[in-house]
Amino acid sequence: MTGDPAAPTDPRRHVPRTDAVLSDPRLAAALARFDRSTVRAAVSAAQGQARTGEIPPVEVPDAALAALPPRASSLTPVLNATGVVVHTNLGRAPLSTLAREALLDAAGAVDVELDLATGRRSRRGVAATTALRDAVPGAESALVVNNGAAALALAAATLATGKEVVVSRGQVVEIGDGFRLHELIESTGARIREVGTTNRTHLRDYAEVVGPQTGCILVVHPSNFRVEGFTAGVPVRELAGLGVPVVHDIGSGLLAPEPLLPGEPDARTALAEGADLVTASGDKLLGGPQAGIVLGRAELVERLRRHPLQRAMRVDKLTLAALEATLRAADVPVTTALRRTPAELEQRARRLADALGLAVTAVDGRVGGGGAPGVPLPGWAVVVPPEVVERLRTPDAAVVDGATPPVPAVLARIEDGRGLVDLRCIDPADEPALEAALRRALGRP
Ligand SMILES: *Cc1c(COP(=O)(O)O)cnc(C)c1O
């Protein structure tokens, strides 16, 4: 064969034209799903493969199908086999079935700001804030914004722009991804007034600086680290007597105490202790969508609601729907994963390991998302060679025959040179898919 592009045997002469490829019923169906340019790009990629001789011309339709995006967005579902319950890189909390249903319902036109009974405009998000108030006795009012950082910034902007936010030096923290609490607060035009020392702060430290220039006292749960040893802090209960609003940023979003995590603050307790406002994240231990939650005294929450910045931080109907449903759901995956017992996890790990001829080991899972550092969650994992962990990350989505179940992406972890597939965050319903992914990654039939 010569390199002459015009030779009659050259595959380029037989590459089907775009219209011909698009007449394949499967690609015609794809056109009903994806916009024209997406489908055309896939077709032209396949034509390119045929032109270079990489595939025979008859395979262009199949190759075009394979080149289509495997799903509606490029966000790829991942089975979380890391044992980290709130995994930031995996989007924090996986949502409950009920919250997923709510998302689908809310995806269309919904009465998010309409009273269907009267036909009049209603207050946006009222159902979600009512559900929050119902879930937290002691919360007179609630507000939902974009995330925990927004809740904190809105509180600072409303209560302390041009004034001081008094905070213990040991609570001026960096939360993650370079997010430093004091920088966020100062960006609202409030000044940080640090009191006490890194390890010890006393009531008198606060009392000495509180005055007319004080916007609020801020108590921050240091979330991702612990100060141990010679330490002292001031309970919210005592700060509440100083005559200025006390804002407690509890971080992880427990609404009530969680017996498994005695060191994690919760909204109910914080309010009972006298905090005027509590701020928290919706997608950490609450197990809901990304959201910032503000709970507390009605008059203060109303001031936050009326602040111009609130409009820049408001959440959409999808978040409101998922948050409300999370508060109603029987089975919130974050809570379920947190509470799985070592006995249950051992049994599941052994079954999976036996099916694949692998070993199991006792491991400690973690809360993650900056929550409860150093608190081990005893569980079990299947041990795999470390190189298998890498192969597990690649999903096999390009399955076009409809018969082979797609193999999901799996994120496991490597510890002390061993690959660990931790079952804590794996729903039992996903175990067959996990097993299929392991078989493929291990090169087993
Ligand atoms: C996580 C966290 C935040 C930030 O919340 P996001 O929802 O991530 O914006 C603020 N404060 C504390 C104490 C946290 O743990």
Describe what you observe in this structure:
The modification N6-(pyridoxal phosphate)lysine is found at residue 284. Pathway: Aminoacyl-tRNA biosynthesis; selenocysteinyl-tRNA(Sec) biosynthesis; selenocysteinyl-tRNA(Sec) from L-seryl-tRNA(Sec) (bacterial route): step 1/1. Its cofactor is pyridoxal 5'-phosphate. Converts seryl-tRNA(Sec) to selenocysteinyl-tRNA(Sec) required for selenoprotein biosynthesis. The strands form 5 sheets. A 7-stranded mixed β-sheet has the order 5-13-12-11-10-6-9, sandwiched between helices. A 5-stranded mixed β-sheet has the order 2-14-15-18-17. The chain has 445 residues and is of the alpha/beta class. The relative contact order is 0.14. Helix 3 crosses helix 4 (60-67), helix 6 runs parallel beside helix 14 and helix 17 crosses helix 18 (431-442). It has 3 domains: 14-67, no CATH class; 78-87 and 335-442, Aspartate Aminotransferase, domain 1 (Alpha-Beta Complex), CATH 3.90.1150.180; 97-330, Type I PLP-dependent aspartate aminotransferase-like (Major domain) (Aspartate Aminotransferase, domain 2, 3-Layer(aba) Sandwich). 37% of the residues lie in helices and 18% in strands. The chain is built from 18 helices and 18 strands. The protein is globular and about 90 Å long. The structure holds pyridoxal-5'-phosphate. Pyridoxal-5'-phosphate is lined by residues 147-149, 152, 175, 220-221, 223, 249, 251-252, 281, 292, 370.
